[in-house]
Amino acid sequence: MKAPVVEIRSLRVRRGGRTVLQVERLEVVEGEVVVVLGPNGAGKSTLLKCALGFTRPNSGEFRVLGHPVWPSAAAPLCALRRRIGYVPQMLAAHSEMPLTVREVAAIGRTGIAGLFRRLTRSDWNIIDDWLERLGLADLAGQAYAGLSSGEQRKTLIAKAMVQQPEMLLLDEPTANLDLFWREQIVDLLQRLHEETGLTILLVCHELEAVPPCCRRLLVLRDGRLIADGPPENVLTRQMVENLYGSRLRLFTADRRYAAVPVGEAFI
Amino acid sequence: MDLLFWAPVVCCGALAGASTGFLGTYIVGMRIPFLGICVSHAALTGAVYGGLCGLTGPMLLPPALAGAVIAALLLGTLDPQSSRIDSNVLMGILFSLTMGLAFLGLGLYGIYDISDNEVRSLLWGSLNFCRWSDFYIMAAAAVLEIVVVAAFYKELRAILFSRVHAAAAGVPVVPVWTALLILTSVVLTVNFQTVGGLMIYSLLTNPAVAAFLLVKGYGKALALSALFGLLSGLGGFLLAAATDLPTGAMIVILSSLLVGLAWAISGLRRRAGR
To answer: Does some domain include residue A246?
Structure first.
């Protein structure tokens, strides 16, 4: 039996006088690719932030990789985060400084190397290896800020992967990307799972961003888990209508999904 | 030129430029240049009240440092999300508050009939009156700067990119960020006493901006920014000596010219690359 990497019991997160996330019970086991779907404001990003200890729940239990995220002191929380790769949602230019792609990827090894220690040759080999595997080797010396959004997203995935994480958390990694880059990222996630067997928790609101390796789909709405199961069971016409309105029709091919507008208004 | 008199002035100008330019890499890199002006004016407030308590000369340094550290820690530790106020707005509030408190203090000098000349000179600085004792204090702050940056070199690089990314990768952001804020307070307060609140702001911003326009990469940007700061401090003094114009103004103008030059070179490079 595979070990659970995420365990949630009676979790409740309240912000600004309203419940933004309420999950009674949830377990994600090692090697699973779980996609969390839901409209804006459903609590998807809050779920990931709770997993990393960035958001403190009001009540309940949240264990990641066997350790409670809350209550947790700063040092154990840092140690836990080093075992989790995280690709956040926002892609705004973070720094005025022209950090190179290689330097941005190196952030992933910074916590692991520890305070008062330099990154070793072995750390830099891991960084260069992941840049090569993700097709970023030619851009290693380029300024991160000068890259396209898709290349930046890939660099952030490289930053997460150089941690050699036990779990990868991605918050809308295809948001604001064109179709070419969306497909590049979906292919990349598929390849990462095939090559490493990594547990992936992917938050998105587009059905098109669900990779074929996803065998479990969670649907959040208004902070509550309304569906949990294989994509073919969860993604029914009724669910798509419930989430996105009645003018969208669900299309499926080779374990990929798309919601396409239909009806008189779109003919 | 009386070399014995001017040698500490030249050394102080060059060191102020190099150490502030070096620090500016982080301040400009994180897009918080207003932190510099905010912290230096909080230092002025500290010095004003120190002076009211009868302190003079180098003894004004501890209250100035206390003001700067309090302001930096307030700005650095307040969470914009929980306070629902953007950090730039917070800096605006704190800046106006520290200036208000400083002017209130200066008003009290008049009421209690105490001379405020020494405290007022802090705003504009007194580079031409720097002595070796000032240089030693500035050198100690520069050594501290090098020690902190060397100790947290890779963590500061991560924080420079994004504090969220750094924290997510397991970097202990809070102690490193606090160390940077305290370092900022120390470097600005020490240099503020000699080169003045207005000039320090240009040395904090311009060398880093010029370096960012010309090079890619963390180490190169740090080194070039420190070099541009040093050139601004040293060149500004030499220009002032040659033209008999105010030293502070020459340093500010030279550092601004460096930004213009770097911007032009960067533009030419972009065109050549097309």
So the answer is: no
